[in-house]
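Tutorial handout. Part one gives the primary structure; part two gives the three-dimensional structure as tokens.
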Amino acid sequence: MSFWITYDVLARNLFGVASPWSFDLSEYSLVWITFLGAPWVLLQDRHVRIEILIDALPIHAQRKIGILVSVVAMVICAILAWRTSISALGYFQNDIAMPRIWRIPRIWPYSIIPIGSTLLTLSFALRLGLYLTDENPENVLHIKASAGQETGLSSEI
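Part two.
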């Protein structure tokens, strides 16, 4: 993505050549990056969290909040997967194209949303399982989040 944005900036400023396709490609790439990256980031526990509040609570309260957040997020992601699957099916059945420079079927750039939402639902289900079965799930999550910070290598727990 950074290659074609750099190309677009250089081509536009140095040669006066516009490449409108790069904007569309960047937009589609952002959707794919977001919905493919989010489940992995959640599984690694490297997302944004308000740890100062959670760490101040007793372990039983941490678990209850973790269970509540996991269930709510799982339901929201499942609804998102369901609704976007319906839209994606409509895009596919009706052969709806993007009204952009690239006249590609809308299903291709946005098919990742129901897929990524389903993966997020499964990731939250795994996280819920951790909160339901582990004595100190926040400690496990801290270890996962900090794994490889010094070396850049990840280690599975």
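Part three, for discussion. The first helix runs from residue 2 to 15. The mean pLDDT is 88.
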